[in-house]
Amino acid sequence: MKARAPGVVPAVHAAAAVLAAAGLGWTGWYGVAEPVVALAFGLLIAAGELARWGALPGEREPAPLGAAGGLAYALLAENAGQATTHGVPQVVAVVTAGALAGAVPHVARGRGPVLDHVARRVITVTFAAVCVQPLHGPGAPVEALATGPGHALVMLLVPVLTALCDAVLAALMVRARTRYPFGPLLREELRSLPGIGSAVCATGAVLALGTAVAGLWALPVFCLPLLLTQLSFRRFAAVRTTYRQTIASLARATEIAGYTPHGHAHRVAALSAAVGRELGLSGPDLTVLEYAALMHDIGQLSLVDPVPDGATALLPAQEQRRIALLGGAVVRQTGVPRAVAVVVERQADPYREQPLPARIVRTVNAYDDLTGESAGSALAALEQLRLGTAHDHHPEVVESLARVLARGGLGPAQPG
User: Fold this and answer.
1) CA gap 359, 346 in Å, rounded
2) How many Cα atoms are found within 13 Å in the side-chain-facing hemisphere of 235?
3) What backbone phi and psi angles, to 5 degrees, belong to 81?
4) Which among 28, 2, 1 is positioned nearest to 412, based on CA atoms?
5) Cβ distance 339 to 326 under 8 Å?
6) Helix (H) or strand (E) segment spanning residue 79
């Protein structure tokens, strides 16, 4: 049975809906302040959302221009030297309207998830606006923070805190949907911040400061660096995707040659990644685990006679180690990171001598060998793995595998 998304996700959606309704209602009742400025930023946010592409592996923010536009409007205090008076409710209203307008074509084409994305955008921009907007205008509680060095500190600190708020929200929502440990998920989100996240924060602050001095002409001028950064990041992400596809194609060589069952390498890789997340792996460690799991059987290509059904887990320990060493030698010739070859080589060692990724690959591979395509033998396979925890399989890895399987296997994909 698959895990259901507990109350965290509906709570985030509900909070965003309340904020959006309050902002739109307030703005509709009292009218739009500086309508030209609001329209310009609304169009910028909508354009950024329209330009949102499907998230690639390793990409945390699929619509950086929309994120920077929303943050800039929340930070905005002046337009060409004239003080703005739009306030927090109008910031929420403009960001909501722009995000929803930009999301309509994606919804129509079935490109999701959009609701999570919009909810996070509304909540994080509200946070930034609440931190900044009360500092401006008559009766500001801390006037020193609205001008001079204090203002510079606010413009530096608030985008960073907003990015941290978004990272926490993202990790909470993934945790709620997948039941993976929160700590590693948050670390993975924080690791991605120095990339496109820092560009979004910097562009949002620069857009607000530039508009304060030069007016709305600053918007197209200062958006250009972020667009170039986004293009470069996407090219890098596309290279990583191609690299992974190359490894996946190489992993299929054992299937094409008839040494392993169809889909075995991909099943082991997907389930290994799920178990790795369950055990707290993230970032580069998770990538190494996935690559090693894809290529774990490549040593079978050196065999004269194929192993029956490709089930190396059923072979004697000495033969398993020989195939693993042959596989590691092949992997070292492919140019993948050395850590991948180490995992492939050590997957057949006693678990007390293995690094964690090798323990995971060994256990998941054994599970897939024992079950094949028969779901009915899953409980029997887990029981056999538990019987092997004295020497072959780490008890914690086996129990993590059992928890992942109890939730329905791989669980939902992470939101972009």
Assistant:
1) 9
2) 6
3) 85, -5
4) 2
5) no
6) strand 78-79
Helix (H, G, I), strand (E, B) or coil at 84: coil
pLDDT single digits (tens) 38-67: 999 999 999 888 877 554 444 566 778 889
C-alpha closest to that of 154 among 129, 127, 132, 125: 132
How far is residue 125 CA from its own chain's centroid? Answer: 20
Which residue, chain included where needed, has tokens 């221009």? 65
- My answer on whether omega of the bond before 113 falls inside 30° of 0, hence cis, is yes
DSSP state of 91: H
The interaxial angle of helices 8-30 and 87-108, nearest 10 deg, is 120
Tokens of 340: 């991948």
Closest CA to 243 of 338, 336, 149, 134: 336
Contact 59, 197 (CB under 8 A): no
How far is it, in rounded angstroms, from Cα 342 to Cα 360? 13
Residue 415: pLDDT band with limits 50, 70, 90:
very low
Number of H helices, E strands in the chain: 17, 2
- What phi and psi, each to the nearest 5 degrees, are found at residue 83? -65, 140
Q: Cβ(310)–Cβ(259) under 8 Å? A: yes
Give dist(CA 186, CA 151) in Å, integer: 29
Token pair of 324, please?
């693993």
Residue 62, both tokens: 């699929």
pTM: 0.77
Q: For residues 148 and 10, what is the distance between their CA atoms, to the nearest angstrom?
A: 41
| Amino acid identity for residue 218 in this structure | A
From the list 232, 275, 224, 218, the residue with the least C-alpha distance to 40 is 218
Over residues 205-259, the pLDDT tens digits come to 999 989 988 899 989 888 888 888 777 777 877 787 788 888 888 888 888 877 7
Taking the alpha carbons of 159, 165, 169, 175 in that order, is the dihedral positive or negative? positive
Give the range among 94-98, 170-174, 178-182, 327-331 with minimum mean pLDDT: 178-182
**Amino acid occupying residue 346:** R
Residue where the block lists tokens 């054994």: 366
Contacts of residue 315, Cβ cutoff 8 Å, sequence gap at least 6? 307, 323
At position 196, the amino acid (one-letter code) is I
Distance between CA atoms of residues 317 and 310, nearest Å:
15
Tokens of 413: 């994909």
